[in-house]
Amino acid sequence: MPYLYGDPLKCTGCRICELYCSLCHERVLNPKKARLRVVRMEPAIDKPIACRQCADPPCAKVCPTNAIARNAAADMVAVDEAKCIGCGTCVEACPFGAIWLHPERKVAIKCDLCGACVPRCPVGALSIVTGEQFANRRRAELIARLKPIMLERVRVPRD
After folding, report:
1. What is the mean pLDDT of the chain?
2. CA–CA separation, 153 vs 79, rounded Å?
3. Is 37 helix (H, G, I), strand (E, B) or coil?
4. With 0-12 CB in 10 A as exposed, 13-18 as middle and 19+ as buried, what is 13?
5. Is 131 a member of any domain?
């Protein structure tokens, strides 16, 4: 299942993705209306947060109106805004903190995998990946870090 991945090692916290997302979906530049968020994890680490498109989504399990369901054809979890009553139980149930209530319409909003933000990221921190692709990428990064560093012995002149 694909999902939007944000690399915290690349993200600079510029929040252009949030602005572009709100522009595409709401026609306004308002990060509170974006389907993804950039959160500050540490003083210098920012992480883009977006729906992980869970195989068995906890947000859908707790929705009292069945407004959230997996769309098998699109291979993603979708929100039917017509059914959503804005109770917020899905927000509390999401283990990734990747679903929010629209500040005005009071309906659940989350990433719909449109991918419009991906090419707009100036540092390439965003990508749409599957769980397998992510695991392979992380494995390659870890292997690259384990390569031995060759040190050269240098003679220090003595006075």
Report:
1. 91
2. 62
3. strand
4. middle
5. yes
